Structures are given as C-alpha cells and as structure tokens.
C-alpha cells in the first residue's frame, strides 16, 4: 500500500492526469495491479 497526501482532491487529480505520471503509470501497469482512491477529509 502506498499513501500519498495532497493538499486537495483537485491537486491529486492534476497529478494523476499529468503527462509525467501517465508515462510512469504506463510502465507500472505492466508490472503490478493498482487500485487508486481519492479520499477527502483524512
């Protein structure tokens, strides 16, 4: 499990959809199963 804290859900979504993360995600999806959740108020 990996937990990453962002200032807001909008920041998390911006990160997720960034070109840089999408490039890494493409590689990661070939080697691991992933489920992502964005939780607010923690």
Question: What do you see in this structure?
Answer:
The chain is an all-alpha fold. It contains two helices and no strands. The mean pLDDT is 89. It holds the Pfam family DUF1330. It comes from Candidatus Accumulibacter appositus. Residues 2-42 form the DUF1330 domain.
Amount of beta strand: under 5%
SS element count, helices: 2
- Rounded mean pLDDT is 89
Largest sheet: none
How many angstroms does the end-to-end distance come to? 16 Å
Question: Which spans have pLDDT < 50 for at least 5 consecutive residues?
Answer: none
Could you tell me the number of beta strands?
0
User: Given the helix and strand composition, which structural class is it?
Assistant: mainly alpha
Secondary-structure element sequence? HH
Bulk shape? flat
Q: Summarize the amount of helix as a percent range.
A: 40-55%
Radius of gyration: 11 Å
């Amino acid at each position: 499990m990996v937990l990453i804290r962002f200032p807001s859900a909008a920041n998390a979504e911006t990160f997720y959809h960034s070109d840089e993360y999408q490039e890494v995600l493409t590689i990661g999806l070939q080697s691991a199963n992933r489920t992502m959740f964005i939780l607010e108020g923690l």
